[in-house]
Design goal:
By secondary structure, this protein is α/β, with parallel strands linked by helices. Helices cover 35% and strands 19% of the residues.
């Protein structure tokens, strides 16, 4: 993992999902100046979209992180957001799903639950150019079957890549690729989500330093 990430073959892409920016501030800042492209999904997306002035309806948001989001967007990496969002009126697997184009935004009364089909298709094409891909965090409410299509679609897109180093970190993300029976197709799989993020941010871990002594 160290060799792959510290001297990554390029283009180097990172897909970062999960619910909150606050748990990934350090690594997002690091990656925004390290990778060639940063693809953002999951609940954290809505804080970024709000920072850009896009309507997010009733979606999860961290208002205290708006300025941090703007700072991350100033990094060297090109940032990609979903181009369509699957939303629902309730945080419930059985809530009827409606897909909204991101240009339209998410109206009041709806909350974002997953990336849409057009986003999966667009990101799949984009990832064809990658030589190294890091993925941490689901891009939707993966634990609900009706809102897991985006995460499973990204898993398949990465599994189909040729001549590309693919690294997955984090328990939820690993659960997704295991459910899709694709874990064997990835170069490296780490269930230590927090540890892998810390390693990315600082380039080492206390245990690794101890082993060097």
């Amino acid at each position: 993992m160290g060799n792959a990430l510290m001297s990554a073959s390029r283009p180097f892409f990172a897909i970062i999902g999960g619910a909150k920016i606050s748990t990934k501030i350090g690594v997002l800042k690091t990656l925004s100046n390290k990778v060639d492209a940063l693809l953002l999904g999951g609940g954290m997306t809505y804080t970024f979209l709000k920072a850009l002035g896009i309507s997010i309806g009733d979606s999860i948001v961290e208002d205290s992180m708006i300025d941090v989001a703007k700072e991350i967007l100033q990094g060297k990496a090109k940032v990609y957001f979903p181009i369509d969002i699957v939303a629902a009126t309730k945080f419930d697997n059985n809530s009827p799903a409606v897909t909204f184009p991101i240009q339209q935004g998410i109206p009041a009364g709806y909350q974002g639950m997953d990336i849409g089909e057009k986003t999966v298709q667009t990101w799949t094409r984009l990832l064809q150019d990658a030589k190294t891909v890091l993925w941490n965090g689901p891009v939707g409410v993966f634990e609900m079957p009706n809102f897991s299509k985006g995460t499973l679609g990204i898993a398949k897109a990465l599994a189909d890549l040729k001549d590309c180093v693919t690294i997955v970190g984090g328990g939820d993300t690993v659960a997704a690729i295991q459910e899709a029976h694709l874990a064997h197709t990835f170069t490296h799989v780490s269930t230590g989500g927090g540890a892998s993020l810390e390693y990315l941010e600082f380039g080492t871990l206390p245990g690794i330093e101890a082993l060097k002594c």
